[in-house]
């Protein structure tokens, strides 16, 4: 059975006339313990983020404002996900190359990560990635 590259997960959405609320809980809606949280914003038009894979760290990516596209690549197949709802997140598995692009004006990308930052966990060169994962 082929391992999935990633999947969109709906988060609990509490609708309220004063404004909606969404919650992400580790080991519940996010299927791992959250060790690091970061976000990107003010991404200039035409720029992209990501462009790497992780050996161990899974990530949960949420468009908390605006929209952007996440393309996942396992060396054989590519699949793109438009993230544009703050009540949905994309679970990205380990060993998957990811690129984030097409950021709308004002987009904020929130990432919940399974691990603390560790440079050795990153594969930043696509050719190196293919040597390890696309066999």
TrEMBL record:
Pfam families: FdtA. Signal peptide: none annotated. Gene3D superfamilies: Jelly Rolls. Residues 7-132 form the Sugar 3,4-ketoisomerase QdtA cupin domain. It comes from the Bacteria. This is FdtA/QdtA family cupin domain-containing protein. It comes from Hallella faecis.
